[in-house]
Amino acid sequence: MARQEKESRGLVPGLLSGMATTARTAFRPTHTRQYPDVAPDLPPRSRGVIALLADNCTSCMLCARECPDWCIYIDSHKETIPPASEGGRPRQQNVLDRFAIDFSLCMYCGICIEVCPFDALFWSPEFEYAETDIRDLLHEKERLGEWMATVPPPAAFEPGALEEVVVDEPATEEDATQPPEATR
Amino acid sequence: MTVTEVVLRCLIVLVGFLVLPLLIGQTEHKLMAHMQGRLGPMYAGGFHGWAQLVADGVKFVQKEDVVPSAADKPVFRFAPALALASYLMALAVVPLGPVTWGANVPGSLVWVLAVGGIGTLGTLMAGWSSGNKYSLLGGLRAAAQLISYELPLILSCASFAMAAGSLSLVAIGHAWTPWWLIWQLPGALVFLVAATAELQRPPFDMPVADSELVFGPYTEYTGLRFAFFLLAEYAGIVVMSLLLAVLWLGGWTGPFDHQIGVLWTLLKGFGIALVILWMRMSWPRLREDQLQRIAWLWLVPLALLQIAITAAGVVLMSR
Amino acid sequence: MVGVGAGGLASADMVLNIGPQHPATHGVLRLRITLDGERIRRAEPIVGYMHRGAEKLFEVRDYRQIMVLANRHDWLSAFSNEIGVALTVERMLGMDVPERATWTRTLLAELNRVLNHLMFLGSYPLELGAITPIFYSFREREELQAVMEEISGGRMHYMFSRVGGLRDDLPAGWLGRVAASIAAVRRRLPDLESLLVGNEILRARTRGVGVLSPELIEAYGVSGPIARASGVDVDLRRDRPYLAYAELFAPGGPGRVVVRSAGDCLARLEVLLEQVHVSLDLAQACLDRLAALPAGPVNVKLPKVLKVPEGWDYVATENPLGFNGYYLVSRGDKTPWRLKLRSASFNNVAVLGELLPGTLIADMVAILGSMFFVVGDIDK
């Protein structure tokens, strides 16, 4: 980098070269994106908002427990499903009453989505949900469900990627059946 | 001069005083944006944000007028008016054409330099009266700056006056010949640098220096009073640019100058204003002592040299 | 205000608080300076306005959750911070990281370094009064942030490292887009440089200002580009290689350590500017290498509950701003017993108390800006 150590020649060449650059830039196309009028291009992995596919949720509470700042609220109750066939045993199933994420606390780390064993949570690049009241950033089950429509398909991998992608183990039965009260 | 004419001239000066600085301000917005690869204001008024400064003005009017309890209140309130008024008085005597002027006084050049200097006093008063340490430092920097640029400014103007043999701006405009472009070039450069320093424009904006002194003397100002300081800054650019256009670029002289002479003055002044704006976009800020150094080691000797050249030229040409 | 010698005007010292809210302090650093006129008599950096208790929070988080917090102390070097945690844990576990992950990590770390340096190459001239460079540098930042966002989903807090590798593999076509971004940044960097390199005003403001001696650097533990600008030739990428740096900094490799000897603000700026070029070279080398690597995973399968065996370890990495070290003490739990963070900015700012006395306020801003700090990295 000899050019940086070089002493300047002439009267004020450095100042003039600065002026030349700004003048040149003035006649080039700008790089402004007129945001509210022109939507930004966001990649599929962009972490904008978390969407919930409530049908897949088993209220296992893994996401709520793994969340670093505990911004996920889950309420559920157990229902007994009558046996499907004559003589079968009635089964118990978790029913999701409430699933809420407080986006005023969320750090957008994505751990909840990563740990979800049943693919109930997804990232959506959608980001336009600013509110004037902080309490409105608490998105309940319905609002989280609405984001599902904006979830893009996952991006394909580079050729060098290994075909079998390492996935987390599914949650054990023990985790899935733990009552919600015991986790907090 | 009839009363109607006086009223008309006053009105024109006032309208010019209110419109031209906004034009410069808007130009700065857009020019700066494009030099930085941006678009700048695009919404206010519809077409490329032409009404941005009008919108700014409306915003400033709505803001609360805060006077700090530690401030020297009368001085604090009066300072913006002083800064603004000085350039209004200066603009009144700057001729746009041989007959287009607010007032034609025999010593109009001296008048412009005299009242133009008062504007800095407004900055000084603001800095002193705000009751804020940053403002105080900014005010003192403004005072230090005043000492360094006033002398070269006056010396370079003296050279133009000598060349024309008159202190009247109208007479200087009439005496101008294209030969001045080279003959008076060093003086013009000195004028440009000193005027930028007087206007506290980058690279000589040490008194306001937002990254050092927050906003210097204007830190405590809000609303309309703050807007007055901003308006004064741009009015200052208008006055100084037009002045240099008349002194060095021949003002209204140009093709068809009988019909569109005024336009020539405005165009030349606008060109000089663009250079003043351009410097802001391209350069960092100097330090106060470096300005003093430039002023005393470069500008004053250069201005004196220019006076000598002018004197020699005048003597040679009068033969 | 100005003393005019013995028997002249009496002048009283003025105490001026620069910050915690001040345009030059990048947030909430506070400097209490005692002034005689504009001349600084004493300067005392007061830190702690952004203390968030990160180290204490680490103690009640598992190692994946720690990444979330760890990438936030120096928000301009988020990826490098994550890497530090991951490397520390991996070394204590004795875990081997797939080669593909290592090269991707190195690539992202170097892109992160460019992003960080570009930030300061824009903000430093801004403090000296030049308003345009920051827009040029942010244009380049945007270029690189787009590819960072594409792979990680985040623009600042990437949260892309995991113990044992990375969260995801590379998206299809990403390597090509990174190459295009690097080329675009290289092509447009001369614009930024023309406003800085050789600018007479910038030189006047920075040359010979705030000269930091190697002795002070040693005494205060200053590191990174600031130390190298004073001729202290230390770079952990070369001296204690981690990730793929051993190969990159090997003789004949693209890696080289940028060193200046002047130790003034100008030297610090020059080091930063040249490091951008070096890091772009390194990133390009990583790209070439990644394209040639055989197919493979980017992470290892972790146990459901990751516990680090009892013991301690200290891993330091060369973050964009200097040494960033994690001292991890584990008692065999899934959370650390103690995770001490050694961040670069804390030491780099501590030296200000020695550097500022005798300078002017305008120089203070020039020096402060050239110490390249992030307030979150000071207070943690």
TrEMBL record, chain A:
InterPro entries: 4Fe4S_Fe-S-bd, 4Fe4S_Fe_S_CS, NADH_quinone_OxRdtase_chainI
Cofactor note (record): Binds 2 [4Fe-4S] clusters per subunit.
Domain named 4Fe-4S ferredoxin-type: residues: 48-77, 97-126
Cofactor: [4Fe-4S] cluster
Subcellular location: Cell membrane
Top-rank EC class of the record's enzyme: translocase
Binding site for [4Fe-4S] cluster 2: 67, 106, 109, 112
PROSITE patterns referenced in this protein's UniProt entry, alphabetically: 4FE4S_FER_1, 4FE4S_FER_2
Record note on quaternary structure: NDH-1 is composed of 14 different subunits. Subunits NuoA, H, J, K, L, M, N constitute the membrane sector of the complex.
Family recorded in the similarity comment: Belongs to the complex I 23 kDa subunit family.
Name of the protein in question: NADH-quinone oxidoreductase subunit I
UniProtKB/TrEMBL annotation, chain B:
Cited InterPro entries: NADH_UbQ_OxRdtase_su1/FPO
A GO cellular component entry from the record: plasma membrane
Catalysed reactions, semicolon-separated: a quinone + NADH + 5 H(+)(in) = a quinol + NAD(+) + 4 H(+)(out)
Topology versus the membrane: Multi-pass membrane protein
Keyword Membrane appears in the UniProt entry: yes
UniProt function note: NDH-1 shuttles electrons from NADH, via FMN and iron-sulfur (Fe-S) centers, to quinones in the respiratory chain. The immediate electron acceptor for the enzyme in this species is believed to be ubiquinone. Couples the redox reaction to proton translocation (for every two electrons transferred, four hydrogen ions are translocated across the cytoplasmic membrane), and thus conserves the redox energy in a proton gradient. This subunit may bind ubiquinone.
Protein name: NADH-quinone oxidoreductase subunit H
Source organism per UniProt: Metallococcus carri
